[in-house]
Write a structure and sequence with these properties.
The chain has four helices and no strands. The chain is mainly α. It has a domain at 98-145. The protein is rod-shaped.
Length: 145
């Protein structure tokens, strides 16, 4: 009977130890799952921040490219406005000026030059400049021929 008592006593002790081990294992597994969840949360949060930063970088690069294109266009326009050709064109159109080597011929509307007049002017070395209005050009385009 004593032996049976020790056996029961040992068995109860072992059951308590197994219960403690089971609780300990359960606690470690739960803490591990919580830690795993926190790590996954931190990784997903950083991944989201990285994606948002990349979107912002892409937007800024597109804006920089747009500004570069606009800058190039403005530089080209400034170059054109500073060119001698543009200055001569503006002087002719807005200030009614002419180059000293040019001769201006004014043709009144409705008087079209004839071939004989053009040939006579070409023999003298002068160019015949015919200015027609835009309306007249369109009228001639649609109804003259």
């Amino acid at each position: 009977m004593l032996r049976h008592y020790h056996y029961l006593n040992d068995h109860k002790r072992m059951a308590k130890n197994e219960k403690k081990h089971f609780v300990l294992i359960k606690t470690v597994v739960i803490l591990g799952l919580i830690l795993f969840g926190l790590i996954i949360f931190a990784i997903s949060k950083e991944s989201y921040k990285k994606k948002q930063a990349q979107i912002e970088i892409d937007k800024l690069q597109q804006e920089a490219e747009k500004i570069t294109r606009e800058n190039t266009q403005l530089t080209d326009k400034i170059s054109y406005l500073d060119s001698k050709d543009y200055q001569e064109k503006e002087a002719r159109d807005k200030l009614n000026m002419q180059n000293p080597k040019e001769n201006m011929v004014i043709v009144e509307p409705g008087l079209a030059p004839t071939i004989e007049t053009q040939n006579a002017n070409n023999e003298n070395g002068k160019k015949l400049v015919v200015k027609t209005t835009n309306v007249q050009k369109w009228w001639d385009y649609f109804f003259k021929y």
